[in-house]
Amino acid sequence: MTKLLEKAQVVENKEVASGIYKCRLRTSKIAKECKPGNFINISVGSNSQFLLKRPFGVHNVIGNELEILYRVRGKGTDVMTSLVAGDSLDLLGPLGNGFSLFEGKKILLLGGGMGIAPLYYLEKELSKDNEVITMYAVKTREELVDIKVSNLVVHIDKEEGCFACDKLEDVLIKNNIEMLYICGPDALMKLSYQIAKKHGVYTEVSLEARMACGFGACVGCVVETVSGLKKVCNEGPVFKAEEIWG
Ligand code: FES
After folding, report:
1. CA of 232, closest atom in ligand 1
2. Does the C-beta of 220 come closer than 6 Å to ligand 1?
3. Using CB atoms within 10 A of its CB, is residue 123 exposed (0-12), middle (13-18) or buried (19+)?
4. Residue 235 C-alpha to ligand 1 middle, in angstroms?
């Protein structure tokens, strides 16, 4: 896949839940090249403090525009909250390998917190040819982003007094789920995979790692897999769960 470097224009940047923003960017080519699970690197600010590009999963693609979701959790993302329509940003992408796409399957998507970001675009693509349920788990209602998908199950830990993976087995069995895609905290992904494995459900996970270059040059994003060390940025971020946890 060709990586493109281009200037993108901010179309909209707004807070969509407590401390969580959605930014829509107009690109000339990158958006059209993005597949579900890809990410882009964005240069944040002009100050040397923010020279590194930061990775963001592609949340949605609409024609030549793409959306990212980001949580404010440092100076870089704090600077991003002040972006307004018409501002321009340097983008590098698409990066990473993306999710496998199937047809005619019963599929469950499980997003924990900001893990919902790449699953929204995945749902849009998979639901054309599959039966898809999206399970979206957050700790509190304040961090819930309004996600419009056809078959959504929202789980709020604090209100329900349990975790999403406590309900997972039921959902897998009742809906005869054949494939599971997960993005979220490591503990949620690992535990959910173990449940899915017990029921023979094929599982892919999208990993998060600290990334500097985003294309395999800095070795800053290495993870241990059953077949040795792998770079999340260009051998992932999507892996078969069995590659990570056996
Ligand atoms: S981010 Fe540099 S090698 Fe992966």
Report:
1. 4
2. yes
3. buried
4. 10
Last residue of a domain, one of 95, 118, 144: 95
Give the number of the atom of ligand 1 that is nearest the alpha carbon of residue 219. Answer: 3
Ligand 1 contacts CB of residue 213 (under 6 A): yes
Ligand 1 atom nearest 214 alpha carbon: 1
**Do residues 57 and 118 make contact, with C-beta atoms less than 8 angstroms apart?**
yes
Contacts for 242 with CB less than 8 Å, ≥ 6 apart? 197, 203, 226
| Domain assignment present for 100 | no
Task: Please report whether residue 101 resides in a domain.
Answer: no
- Over its C-alpha atoms, the chain yields an Rg (Å, rounded) of 17
Query: Same structural domain for residues 112 and 190?
Result: yes
Distance CA 156, CA 216 (A): 36
- pLDDT at position 210: 82
111 shares a domain with 161: yes
Does the pTM surpass 0.85? The reply is yes
Are 126 and 216 within one domain? yes
Q: Are 54 and 121 part of one and the same domain?
A: no
Chain length of the chain:
246
Q: State which residues of the chain have pLDDT below 70.
A: 45-52
- Which backbone phi and psi does 65 adopt, to 5 degrees? -115, 145
Confirm or reject: Cβ of 92 under 6 Å from ligand 1.
no
Q: Which pLDDT score is estimated for 159?
A: 95
Of 34, 66, 95, the domain-final residue: 95
Domain that holds residue 122: 106-245
Q: How far is the CA of 186 from the centre of ligand 1 (A)?
A: 19
Q: Are residues 241 and 127 in the same domain?
A: yes
